[in-house]
Amino acid sequence: MTFFETLAAEARDARTVWILGALLLLVPLARRFGHDRPRLRAVMVFAFLHVVTLLVSSGFVAAGSQFDAYFRMPAWVFGATALVGALAAVLFSVLLPRVKLEVPRIVQDVAVALLSVVAAVTVAGRAGVNLSGLIATSAVLTAVLGFSLQDTIANLAGGLGLQTDDSIEVGDWIRVGTQPTELNGRVVSIRWRYTAIETRNWETVLVPNRVLMNSSVMVLGKRGGQPQQWRRWVYFHVDFRAQPGDVIQVVQAAVRGAKIERVAKDPAPNVVMMDMAESYGRYAVRYWLNDLAVDDPTDSEVRQVIFFALERAGMRPALPAHAVFLTQETEDRAASKTQKQLARRRRVLETVTLFAPLSEAEKQEVAESMKYAPFARGEVMTRQGDQAHWLYLLEDGEATVRVSDGVTEKQVARLTGGSFFGEMSLLTGEPRAATVVAESEVECFRLDKAAFELVIQRRPEVMNEVAALLASRRVELEAAREGLDAETARTRRASAEVALLDRMKRFFRLD
Question: Angle at Cα 204 formed by Cα 201 and Cα 207, nearest 5°?
């Protein structure tokens, strides 16, 4: 027989046409709809080995050599393995995903390996290979391999256990061990031998599966039927000069009102008093983090909100009880500090045209009444609809003005150093017309109604000039927006001035 006649006979016996036909149909289908390229490469390798060994076997038969038997059976086994791999690629990468059924990768690999072994044994048996002797003589080898590969087998069993019981899934954030300093990261893959965990330091740690099975593993931020979010604790200390109830109220309101990314609104952040030390109370802000990859930066933003909230309320973080101050606070030094603070307030006050009608003495009095009120980035400085009878004067930083119609909120203005807002609430008692949010750390001063009321009671005519300034400012904006002519603007300004003056008099009870 010629070589080609022998090759045709060998291919017919090995079912090569059926195998290659199936591969030509299944592999393009898997490539088109699936994403399992490693398995497809393995299928192509086995198919190539099937063809090569079949050609070698046919060559020996055509040459009359007896070595063909050493290549015929491997050719059949390679062909069967390639067919099993192609069927598995279509099943696991195309068909099951279409019906929303995801099979863990390690389970797929075990199933393919077992089916490949069954196919190989079946084909070898049909080829005339006596497997009983092979099985009998391999008992000792199996025992030796079992002892030497016990760690590998344990890892494989652990991987199967992790995948089948869904205790840990890809995407989970876990902590291995009982200490916070232990391994902490996100599961990115579960393999035969190991589980890969990415840490926040851009490290990928390969943990043997048997270690996970034998260790305490905490799955972070995971609760049945709930979104992924993890409760964080941010501690701070305040001395006993501030009542605990006031500290909790001030800090809790600030953290809940701040627009901090990655802090869940439900459950809302809360503040608790954890302990009472020698000279201070130990408190904690508890909030829920909804992006577990960004823990420390979010903690930092919460600490900034805590710091500025305590600063506004006149509550300083506690100093260690053993701190010793050596600075001698003389009267001259105290007076110098006071003058610097007053000069700073006067500079801010001079930038506001609203206070231009005041005399120098009145400006000095107002400056002495102003309170330092800093805000952290993301804090709500004032909220639309609130009753707050004070004015804010921005010294440094940026803030945005937002208006809500009850459904959507949009930004309408941006404030920088030298701006002010809240004048209508200060002068007429109107609710806040907009929400103002700090976009950076903002340093500003607050002027309360009581301080301005003292000036008005002594010199009521100041209201006329302030009302004229406010009316002029409002009508200028309306004229620019609506294109008013000079006469209409003048008429509207006069009407607005009368209305504002009337409301101011009622608010300060000067009628």
Answer: 125
d(CA 88, CA 26) in angstroms, rounded, equals 10
Task: Determine the Cα angle at 103 with ends 99 and 105, to 5°.
Answer: 140
Task: Tell me the per-residue pLDDT of 52-74, one tens digit each, with 9 for 90 and over.
Answer: 776 777 666 666 666 555 666 77
Q: How many residues does the chain have?
A: 511
Give the separation between CA 149 and CA 155, rounded to whole angstroms.
10
Average pLDDT over residues 146-153: 51
CA separation for the pair 384, 292 (Å, rounded)? 32
Q: What Cα–Cα distance (Å) separates residue 478 from each residue in 351, 475, 485, 490, 496?
A: 23, 5, 11, 12, 12
Long-range CB contacts for residues 341-344, cutoff 8 Å, separation at least 24 = 342/367, 342/368, 344/395
Mean pLDDT, all residues of the chain: 79
Cβ neighbours of residue 465 under 8 Å, at least 6 residues apart? 356, 357
Candidates 3.30.70.100, 3.10.20.810, 3.30.70.270, 3.20.20.70; correct CATH number of 230-312?
A: 3.30.70.100
Most confident residue range from 208-217, 335-344, 393-402, 418-427: 393-402
Considering the domain delimited by 356-459, tell me its CATH architecture. Sandwich (2.60)
- Identify the bridge partners of residue 236 per DSSP, sorted by sequence position: 283
Per-residue model confidence as pLDDT tens digits over 157-213: 666 666 666 678 888 998 887 666 678 899 998 877 788 999 988 899 988 887 887
* 8 A C-beta contact, residue 51 and residue 10: no
Question: Is there a contact between 60 and 12 (Cβ–Cβ < 8 Å)?
Answer: no
Check if the beta carbon of residue 112 is closer than 8 Å to that of residue 66.
no
User: What's the pLDDT score for residue 141?
Assistant: 47
**Terminal CA-CA length for the chain:** 125
Q: Which residues lie closer than 8 Å to 234 by C-beta, 6 or more apart?
A: 284, 285, 286, 287, 299, 302, 303, 306
> Residue 385 carries which side chain, given as an amino acid letter?
G
Cα 72 versus chain centre, distance? 59
Query: 166-220: what CATH class?
Result: mainly beta
Count of beta carbons in the 10 Å neighbourhood of residue 349 = 20
Bridge partners of 205? Answer: 197
Q: Dihedral of the CA atoms 432, 400, 257, 296 (nearest 10)?
A: -170
Quote the pTM value.
0.61
Burial class (CB in 10 A: 0-12, 13-18, 19+), 443: middle
* Residue 480 Ramachandran class (φ > 0 left, ψ -120 to 50 alpha, else beta): alpha
CB-CB contact of 391 with 446 (8 Å): yes
Q: In angstroms, rounded to a whole number, what is the distance separating the alpha carbons of residues 217 and 269?
A: 26
